[in-house]
Amino acid sequence: MYRIPFERVNWTTSIFLIATALISVTAVPYFIWKCGIDGFQIGLFFFYIIATMSSITVGYHRLFSHLSFKAAWPVRLFTLVFGACAFENACLDWASDHRRHHKHVDHDGDPYDISKGFMWAHIGWLMFKLNPEPPMDNVADLRKDKLVMWQYRWVHLIGFVAGILVPMGLGWWWNAAHGMNPWIGMLGGFLIPGVARIVVAQHCTFFINSLCHTIGRQPYSSSHSARDSAIMAFLTFGEGYHNYHHEFQHDYRNGVKPWQWDPSKWSIWLLSKVGLTWDLRRVPDGKILLAEMREARKHAEKQLAALEHSAPGLAQRATVAVSDLMEKLTASYHEVEQAVAGKVDLSRRTLRDWQRQTQETVQEISRVLQQVAAQGMSAPSAG
Ligand SMILES: [Zn+2]
Ligand SMILES: [Zn+2]
After folding, report:
1. Alpha carbon of 335 to ligand 1 centroid (Å)
2. Rounded to the nearest whole angstrom, what is the distance from the C-alpha of residue 100 to the centroid of ligand 2?
3. Residue 242: nearest ligand to its CA?
């Protein structure tokens, strides 16, 4: 008991998080068991989950925190209203925290610093106040946006009306119009597209700060804890490609490859086709490839270093065995580097070829290293 710093507990946030979670695992299943659930409530739940989640990812995150594209007022208004329905605080607070997360990732100034533990990054940072609270001195640009400031002022009221009262009212209306008990419809609206949806949306956002800094691959950089994971991308509207995002935070895409699941990217792109978003920022393909090559080289060097540590004799043989491949990797790195520096327009095909070549070289290096290690293990000891 004495280990919980009660004087630092943020009671309002903590009670909200715990109460909504408790309702979701008790009252919600009890309600469904007793009263059933109809297509309207399910539809409302999905509408709200999509509207809320995309408002956080497209609006709060990519638009307001990172300025990765520009958007007309209807897009800003929609994401600010439904963002408020996520009960993740005002966009201005959210963006300030998030910009500090990127600036100080994995260190003290990072509000959801994963090095303080998984639970801290997921939810702990919200339940305990930092002492002292950092100033919001990194969102001067957003303060000039009248819609952002309007939401900042009324965020809880907007969230309560649009995120709780409206689904309750819709549930009432639907049941009344179809000869069913309107009170049941209203309660269903409160519990399912209301409370349960808030809990799901919140934890999916929190996963970006916890799981996306814990599980997955690091193809673009291992100098920070952020990771790429397709599973996480599915749960987070495309934000799961978090390693890419931390490396290139101003790109409006998180899943940068055409096949990667990123509905937020698709929404922003589709909106640009009807003139509602514009100036979509993209990192040039050559630069992305360079990051991948740099990381591949680093990975191979780490493998060699690990071998050096466990079997110094083998490491020398391994270094010789892969030296040609490492040289090849370095040479193509410099080729791409020059092309990028000279702003040569690299065709998609050339880039793809380079990418394939890099992958093959890296796989080959891994294979040779494993082979040398296996041979070393099976060879009789020289004493
Ligand atoms: Zn992050
Ligand atoms: Zn970000």
Report:
1. 31
2. 10
3. 1
Same domain (yes/no): 173, 293: no
* 129 sits in which H/E element: none
Tell me, yes or no, whether 95 and 206 share the same domain: yes
> What percent of the chain clears pLDDT 90, i.e. is strictly above it?
67
Residue range of the domain that includes 28: 6-278
- Residue 263 and residue 292 in one domain: no
64 CA → ligand 2 middle, Å: 10
Residue 46 has pLDDT above 60, yes or no: yes
Residue ending a domain, among 233, 262, 278, is 278
Q: Which residue has the tokens 């749960």?
A: 235
Structure confidence by residue, pLDDT tens digits, 315-354: 777 777 778 778 888 887 888 888 788 777 777 777 788 8
Is residue 170 domain-shared with residue 241, that is, in the same domain? yes
Q: How far is the CA of 114 from the centre of ligand 2 (A)?
A: 15
Q: What is the DSSP letter of 163?
A: I
Between the CA of 179 and the centroid of ligand 2 the distance, in Å, is 47
Q: What's the CA-to-centroid distance between 36 and ligand 2, angstroms?
A: 39
Please name the helix (run of DSSP H) or strand (run of DSSP E) that holds residue 277, with its range, or none: strand 277-278
CB 122 within 8 A of CB 207: yes
Contacts of 172 (CB under 8 A, 6+ apart): 182, 183, 185, 186, 189
Whether residue 92 is found in the same domain as residue 124: yes
Residues with CB under 5 A from ligand 1 (ion): 226
**Cα–ligand 2 centroid distance for 239 (angstroms):** 9
User: How far away, in angstroms, is 285 Cα from ligand 2 center?
Assistant: 20
CA of residue 110 to ligand 1 center, whole Å = 9
Say what the alpha-carbon torsion angle 91, 96, 102, 106 is, to the nearest 10 degrees.
Answer: -110
Residues linked to residue 71 through DSSP beta bridges, in sequence order = 277
Count of the separate structural domains present in the chain:
2
* Per-residue model confidence as pLDDT tens digits over 219-275: 999 999 999 999 999 999 999 999 999 999 999 999 999 999 999 999 999 999 999
- Among all bound ligands, the one having the nearest atom to the CA of 61 is 2
